[in-house]
Amino acid sequence: MGCCTGRCTLIFLCSLQLLAALERQIFDFLGFQWAPILGNFLQIIVVILGLFGTIQFRPRYIVVYTVWTALWVTWNVFIICFYLEVGGLSKETDLMTFNISMHRSWWREHGPGCIRRVVRPSAPGILEDYSYVSVTGCIIDFQYLEVIHSAIQILLSLIGFVYACYVISIFMEEEDSFDFIGGLDTYSYRQPPQEHVELKPVGRSK
Questions:
Q1: Cα torsion through 162, 24, 36, 108, rounded to 10
Q2: What angle, rounded to 10 degrees, do the helices at 5-30 and 142-190 form?
Q3: Where is the signal peptide (predicted)?
Q4: What is the pLDDT of residue 187?
């Protein structure tokens, strides 16, 4: 089978998802966001499986990709709720770092237009090596950048889910047709050739 429209589209979508996951993984590493790092790693692995299954006609790999896509959408919805502080969630907690560290999103200090300053307080009684970071002038707040990243992941995943289901149905139909044709060939091959016996009347001997 050549590269049909659905199969080519799924290959293209998997490639986009792979690039988007790699880009997100880099910035999550820079921000020490361990929970998203783990999720991105699984996303990269499963997308590679889906891409391989699509190219090599392996429906089982595409099924794994489809199931994971639903979980990935759920995870990104949670991230959106986390950064928008929906349902009692707070973006100031250490949930994304598994409470290991107090790091925040890399975009918090390095977003577009952000001016980062390290300020050392001059108040008495404070250690000299103590400092805090002042960030001003950001065009877009970091939480909205994280929401945009998650929204892009959700959009690509939903489209990929639809095309993955379509490609799986195509593969299944082709396998059924091949089995049907092969079954007929096997049946005809196993049938023993019929012998044609010519019957002749036997005359009575005088």
A1: -130
A2: 140
A3: 1-21
A4: 45
